[in-house]
Amino acid sequence: MNSSIKNRRSIRKYKSDKPVTKDQLNQLLEAAMMAPSACNSRPWEFIAVTKREILDEIARIHPFAKMCKTATAAIIVVAIPQEGMPSGYFSQDCAAATQNILLEAVAIGLGACWCGVYPRGERIDSLRKLFNINEPKILFNVIAVGTPDEAPEQKGFFEEARVTYIE
After folding, report:
1. Chain-wide mean pLDDT for the chain?
2. For the chain, does the N or the C end have fewer beta carbons within 10 angstroms?
3. Which run of H or of E encompasses 111?
């Protein structure tokens, strides 16, 4: 199995003296944009944040993104529901892009944490105001990024009892 999958953890403490570079952010965003999407619709945009004041504001307004206080970057995934496309798939597409970011972060020595926004209306509204994002675009999530300052234990594991084999 891919070591990035086995080594991925939700990192909530970061080394503040090790900034995420623009090249690293671009590598994460390239990975995101390699994700599959329904009808190749690519219903996403991304906001890459390294400005300390904005990271602190994210930590203030999102109840579960306090780790942005020590993160040196964040990526905001913005979903773009599209007319003429199969309805409702943007959330799956943006989740696939998010997972690619999380796995690429591990591959390049960074840590990341997925902080849900969608479908929580109050989180969408507060971040919509912060980033001046208008409808129909939807703030999907915040991904805190940085150099890990912790090493949480693995929580995921294979449970064959949760699998039905049809042979």
Report:
1. 95
2. C
3. strand 111-116
